[in-house]
Design brief:
45% of the residues lie in helices and 15% in strands. By secondary structure, the protein is an alpha/beta fold. The chain has one domain (66-364): TIM Barrel. The strands form two sheets. The protein has a nine-stranded parallel β-sheet. Strands 1-2 form a two-stranded antiparallel ribbon. The chain is globular.
Length: 365
């Protein structure tokens, strides 16, 4: 340190825990700040003062998050029209959510005029079946895309007990390394429960596929997670960081030595939120908080759902939240921006530790 710097910092006496507690007690009318300012959410506890952080293996450089507006597929031509509007409005791709009433998927009609090699396409579906695999295979054979030119993911609410369909699906996209076919949607639950259950589901899926001669070297890199993101900025960001860290540990346990924390693709989705007392900008505020948490937690794709998907103005506002945070607020100019924060590192470690304990119980069941 230069002499000038030493002189500058000598003007400010160092403050530690004792100084903080004394000042906090004065502000709290002599109440104990350790108990008064502490908080608890489900099985997670927060302290008002941290002076150290546990070691966590950080993700490293994660590619900038892409903007994926959601289009619910009720009628194919209408969904295609809405998707094209989003792409022309600056979106990096589309997140197609298929309604439960959809009986048949026609990729040719849904993706008319959409150049898949130039955008990222995610598909949220109920469950993989033979018709889905056949439709996707026919579409890929028809278009004859260049090898590894497509990026996207297929997410499923549930998976069949027999892995034959998944086996076919993995082989169908074998030549498209960036098209991830084994997408898992984090279930509802507390911050630790949702992570533990998703990891257990992914682990059991890999083991089932291994039993049918599909090696972990093929399936682990094909896993991707989608999760809804709420408004608790710090806990949501810590949850995404914990999920990435724990999945890396599982990948190492399966012997995937060249797999890195940054290799996991996480898709964050901000559901619409529209309570009357916060009109007219409720979803704008909520979507911004959720998007900031997801970006700070190193998500790879971001979907902010508008109050009404077919309202062009509301859809544009929701789409522009992630675009503005990325391009003008420069949210992803720093890799893992929360790394080193005692508070966030402790939250991440706490979620990871409790989720790992629950995960071990689930995989043994």
């Amino acid at each position: 340190m230069k002499p000038e710097s030493r002189l500058l910092f000598s003007e400010f006496p160092s403050a530690g825990y004792t100084d903080w507690k004394k000042a906090a007690q004065q502000e709290l009318n002599n109440q104990d700040p350790e108990t008064t300012l502490a908080w608890q959410v489900a099985d997670l506890q927060g302290k008002p003062y941290y002076d150290s952080a546990p070691f966590i293996l950080h993700a490293g450089p994660v590619p900038a998050s892409i903007t994926l507006p959601q289009v619910t597929v009720l009628q194919t031509s209408q969904a295609n029209s809405l998707a094209l509007q989003h792409l022309r409005g600056g979106a990096d791709g589309i997140c197609f959510r298929f309604a439960a009433t959809i009986q048949e998927i026609t990729f040719h009609d849904l993706l008319t005029e959409i150049e898949w090699p130039w955008c990222h396409l995610a598909f949220l579906l109920q469950e993989p079946d033979e018709s889905l695999v056949a439709a996707l295979q026919n579409f890929l054979n028809e278009k004859k895309f260049d090898k590894h030119s497509l990026s996207g993911a297929l997410y499923f609410q549930t998976f069949p007990h027999h892995p034959q369909v998944l086996h076919k699906l993995v082989h169908t996209v074998d030549e498209q390394r960036k098209l991830l076919p084994l997408g898992i949607v984090l279930p509802d639950g507390t911050f630790t429960e949702s992570v533990a259950r998703a990891l257990a589901q992914a682990t059991k899926l890999i083991i089932r596929l291994q039993a049918h001669h599909l090696p972990a070297e093929k399936t682990v890199p094909s896993i991707t997670f989608a999760t809804e993101t709420g408004t608790d900025f710090f806990l949501e960001a810590a949850r995404l960081r914990a999920l990435r860290w724990l999945w890396f540990q599982i990948a190492q346990a399966f012997g995937i030595k060249n797999y890195q924390p940054a290799d996991l693709f996480i898709h964050s989705i901000s559901p619409a939120w529209n309570p009357e007392r916060y009109h007219p900008h409720a979803n704008l505020i909520k979507g911004t908080i959720s998007a900031m948490a997801a970006l700070a937690g190193n998500c790879n794709a971001l979907t902010v759902i508008p109050e009404q998907e077919d309202d062009e103005r509301l859809a544009r506002i929701a789409r522009n939240i992630s675009l503005l945070l990325r391009e003008e607020s420069c949210f992803q100019q720093v890799s893992d921006p929360l790394a080193g924060s005692y508070y966030l590192e402790n939250l991440t470690a706490q979620i990871a530790e409790k989720a790992w304990q629950k995960f071990q119980t689930l995989v043994r069941a």
